[in-house]
Amino acid sequence: MASSGNNSTTSTVSGTKQFALLPKIINGGIAGIIGVSCVFPLDLVKTRLQNQQVGPNGEKMYNSMLDCFKKTYRAEGYFGMYRGSAVNILLITPEKAIKLAANDFFRHHLTTSNGTLPITRQMAAGGLAGLCQIVITTPMELLKIQMQDAGRVAAQAKAVGKTTPKVSATSIAMELIRTKGITGLYKGTGATMLRDVSFSIVYFPLFATLNSLGPRRDDGSNEAVFWCSFLSGCAAGSMAALAVNPFDVVKTRLQALKKVEGEMQFNGVADCIGKTLKHEGLTAFFKGGLCRMIVIAPLFGIAQMVYFLGVAEALLGVKSGNK
């Protein structure tokens, strides 16, 4: 989400800027819910493309992003495109709250005595924030992926004369807890950590750099104008998303609990990387990359919009540092 400390709510106490945490939590939740609702169908397509494995004769269920979208819509309808969205909407607020608060916390404590924050320390702050968020991200992504990929698995099973039972996020979660305990919800934690930490290391400093290049507002705040922050968020988000797409592919494949008959099984990050590279080549790690870029860019653009408009501040009657 947007790099807090750039376009965020602040107050001044004894000449020192203090972060207002509650507006961050509300803004992060609002931005997350709006973003998820807008781009979830593309995220579903991304998941199915990443989980798809090429058959022995080169056969594929989906030939492209558009082909996947058409086939999914035709087979499952409009609401089928939102499989797993309830899990995301439910957990997006705590996930974004942790990420924003953690990034602010680490930026504050890593700022040098002369008030500067070197690029290496910005990267460290972002990486540590990404590390903190996996507490919520891992189970959220695990359950979301099962729901998103259920249609693909069902369609493949139907093609060979088999059927698969319908599932819900609740039934999946309860079965995992019953059979494996709470740790069952944390399958793929290593891959999730690789993706989220590396994404935050790239995104937060890149956003801050791009945002600093644009024109400043004329209200004396020295903050970037809205369109600059919006475009910076979109650009930094999409570039970071593409850079870490290989980790996202690995994470998605490890967290897919049900496989189509004949598909490879994976035993950890290294095994998934090795088998994917051997059987599908390097390009497999960039499956769904375009989808992911298209998904991430508006998510971060929306985040900047919510911060700029001061939605939480208006609700709470708090004076925003953006105004």
TrEMBL record:
Reaction(s) catalysed by this chain's protein: L-glutamate(in) + H(+)(in) = L-glutamate(out) + H(+)(out)
GO terms, biological process: malate-aspartate shuttle
Molecular function via GO: L-aspartate transmembrane transporter activity; L-glutamate transmembrane transporter activity; symporter activity
UniProt cross-references to PROSITE patterns, sorted A to Z: SOLCAR
A Pfam family it matches: Mito_carr
Membrane topology: Multi-pass membrane protein
Keywords of the record: Membrane, Mitochondrion, Mitochondrion inner membrane, Phosphoprotein, Repeat, Symport, Transmembrane, Transmembrane helix, Transport
Transmembrane helix listed as a keyword: yes
Membrane-spanning residues: 25-45, 224-244, 293-318
Function: Responsible for the transport of glutamate from the cytosol into the mitochondrial matrix with the concomitant import of a proton (symport system).
PANTHER family the UniProt entry points to: AT03939P-RELATED, MITOCHONDRIAL 2-OXODICARBOXYLATE CARRIER 1-RELATED
Family the UniProt entry places it in: Belongs to the mitochondrial carrier (TC 2.A.29) family.
Protein name: Mitochondrial glutamate carrier 2
